[in-house]
Every structure is written in C-alpha cells, then in structure tokens.
C-alpha cells in the first residue's frame, strides 16, 4: 500500500510531460489578456477562478470580438461540457469520499490531470488512489498560475511569429497517442474532428465541442455494439 | 456586466461542469456497457479541440492550402503512434512546425 504522498508524487511525475506545452499556453493567455484590455489583476483572477486553458482562451476570443456576456458564459459552459464526462468517469473512483474532498478534486479536474489519472485510477484499486489526480491537478495549477503571471509581465516580449498557440492542439493530440492504434477509436476521432471542424461556424454558442463529442460517443456506441454481435 | 462579474460567472460554470457529475453520480449507476462507452470520452472530445485549431484560422476560416499546421500535426501523430511518447509527439510537432515556417 503506497502512502498518500507517494501517490501524490506519482501524479506529479506522470503529468509533467503534459506540463511542457502548458508553459507557452499560459504565457500566451497572459499576453493576450493584457493585449485585449483586461487588467493584470483581472487576468490573474481569471486563471485563479476559472483555472481552465480552453475556457479562458474562449473567454478572451469572444470578449475581444464584442460578444455579449450571456454568449460568452454559455460558450464557456459548452467548451467545458467535456468536464461533465470527465466527472462521470472520475466519480466512480471517488464516490466514497467526503464532500469536502469532492469539492477539492472538482477544482483540479482538468484535461491533463484527467488524462493521466484516468489511466492510473483504472489500474490501481487502493483507497487513496485519488491523490494521483490531486498531484497532477496541483502541478498544473502551479504551472498555470506562474506562466499567466510571467505572460502578464513579459507581455510584448514574446514574438507572435513563433506560433506558440499551436502547442495547444499538439497537447491534445499527444493525449491520444495510445488511441491511434485502436480501430474504433480512430473512427471516433475522425467523426468528432470532422463534426467540430465543419460545425465550427454553424453550431451556435461554440457548442461544436459538445456536439462533436456526442457524435463521437454515439459512433462508439454503435461500433462497439456491432463488434459484439460479430 | 463588469469584467469581474463575467470572470466569476465563467469560473462558476466551469466549476459546476467539473463538480456536478462528481456530486451526483453514485458508484452503482455504472455498468460495464456505460464504462465501455465512457472509455471513448478522450477520443470523442479531444479531436473537437485539435481539428479546428489546425484547420480553422483566427478569423474563423477553413484553411487547407498553405497551412503548415496540417503537415506538422501529421508528423507529430506518426511520431506519437510509433514512440507512444507524449513529449516526443509535442516536440516533433513544434519542431516540424517551426522548420516549415522558418526554414522551408
């Protein structure tokens, strides 16, 4: 039986490769936010309160485009809808925990921590296995807050030409490396990607993320059922 | 709405999407079939972020010609499939992107 600290550290180690692209992501966010006209305090507040890269980037994009608050908030909700599914997966592993732990873990339930801890939680059955997720989430929290801060300070010093925003899709791509080897997963990936790209301009409220995800899950449902009959 | 109110509401909705399922769902609600479907969640959601970030530019236009991100992403994907390494995937993608925009 491993101690809480050992599992927490394992979470930190497992998530660290995914932290490399979070660095430019956080810097970009800090730079963009100041550029758009948010104060340094508001920018820091966003990273502390929202604590979600994709949500914060969507917030900035729509805000600078002059979208209404209602559209911005619903879009952020739509982009975040993936967390409903993460929560549903993780809840199975932490359903016996006290409410206060569920409140803390929810704050740390982010893409990178979910991706690595989902694997860990599936393979390990010890009662304190959720410390892995807390370790991963806390690591990302530290990196996200410090790079936001650096972005605010460095501001214009980072050349836009570097195209660091490309690190964002690469991070998500890297999270799928094991799924590219499985046939059904590849089909699901293609369906979801196509729906998101084709629907990007046509699905209202930036809801393309959830629409594409549902299309992908529906595809998985059909393909896994056919699989069993065969 | 003030900027701070907007930030608070965005934070609230983000937190609620993370917390609601954790708070509501009980262990008994999961059978093998639901687990199997949920194992496809990453494959169903991440492409919805990846594809538009590659194919759609910051003006919302679909770009397929003269778009170095496509080739860089394919290289990253191939490296990822063979290496199964997250770091190798990200670095090969960024390196080929920079090679394509600065050297080629």
Describe the structure.
The complex is a heterodimer of chains A (230) and B (104). Chain A is mainly alpha-helical and 230 residues long. Chain A folds into two domains: 4-175, no CATH class; 176-230, no CATH class. In chain A, 74% of the residues lie in helices and 0% in strands. Chain A has helices spanning 4-19, 22-36, 40-49, 53-64, 69-80, 82-94, 99-107, 111-123, 131-154, 167-174, 183-199, 208-229. Chain B is flat, with a radius of gyration of 19 Å. By secondary structure, chain B is mostly helical. Chain B has helices at 3-24, 32-38, 41-55, 68-83, 86-103. In chain B, 75% of the residues lie in helices and 0% in strands. The chains are: A mainly alpha (230), B mainly alpha (104). Chains A and B meet through helix 3, helix 4, helix 5, helix 6 and helix 7 of A and helix 1, helix 2, helix 3, helix 4 and helix 5 of B.
Short note summarizing the structure:
Chain A has 230 residues and is mainly α. Chain A contains twelve helices and no strands.
Sheet bearing the most strands of chain B, described? Answer: none
Helical residues, percent of chain A: over 70%
Order of helices and strands of chain B: HHHHH
Q: Compute the gyration radius of chain A: what is it?
A: 19 Å
Low-confidence sequence ranges of chain B:
none
What is the general shape of chain B? flat
| Shape, principal axes of CA atoms of chain A | globular
Biggest interface pair, residues each?
A-B, 93 and 67 residues
Overall pLDDT metric of chain B: 89
Radius of gyration of chain B: 19 Å
Gap between N and C termini of chain B = 47 Å
Order of helices and strands of chain A: HHHHHHHHHHHH
Tally of DSSP helical segments of chain A: 12
């Amino acid at each position: 039986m491993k101690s809480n600290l050992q599992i927490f550290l394992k979470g930190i180690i497992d998530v660290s490769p995914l932290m490399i692209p979070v660095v430019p992501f956080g810097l970009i966010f800090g730079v963009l936010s100041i550029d758009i006209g948010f104060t340094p305090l508001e920018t820091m507040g966003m990273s502390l309160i929202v604590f979600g890269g994709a949500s914060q980037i969507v917030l900035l994009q729509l805000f600078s485009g002059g979208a209404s608050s209602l559209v911005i908030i619903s879009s952020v909700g739509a982009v975040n809808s993936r967390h409903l599914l993460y929560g549903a997966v993780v809840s199975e592993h932490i359903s016996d925990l006290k409410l206060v732990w569920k409140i803390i873990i929810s704050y740390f339930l982010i893409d990178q921590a979910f991706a690595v801890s989902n694997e860990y939680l599936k393979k390990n059955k010890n009662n304190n296995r959720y410390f892995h997720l807390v370790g991963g989430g806390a690591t990302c929290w530290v990196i996200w807050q410090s790079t936001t801060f650096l972005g605010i300070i460095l501001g214009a010093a980072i050349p836009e030409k570097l195209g660091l925003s490309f690190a964002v899709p690469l991070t998500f791509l890297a999270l799928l490396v094991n799924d590219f080897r499985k046939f059904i997963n590849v089909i699901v990936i293609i369906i979801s990607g196509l729906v998101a790209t084709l629907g990007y301009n046509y699905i209202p409220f930036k809801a393309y993320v959830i629409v594409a995800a549902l299309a992908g899950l529906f595809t998985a449902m059909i393909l896994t059922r056919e699989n069993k009959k065969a | 709405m003030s900027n701070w109110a907007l930030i608070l509401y965005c934070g609230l909705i983000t937190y609620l999407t993370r917390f609601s399922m954790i708070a509501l769902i009980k262990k008994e609600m999961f059978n093998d079939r639901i687990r199997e479907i949920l194992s496809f969640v990453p494959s169903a959601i991440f492409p919805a972020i990846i594809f538009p970030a590659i194919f759609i530019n910051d003006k919302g236009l679909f770009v397929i010609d003269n778009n170095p991100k496509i080739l860089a992403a394919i290289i990253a994907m191939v490296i990822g499939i063979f290496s199964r390494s997250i770091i190798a995937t990200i670095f090969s993608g960024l390196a080929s992107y920079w090679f394509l925009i600065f050297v080629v």
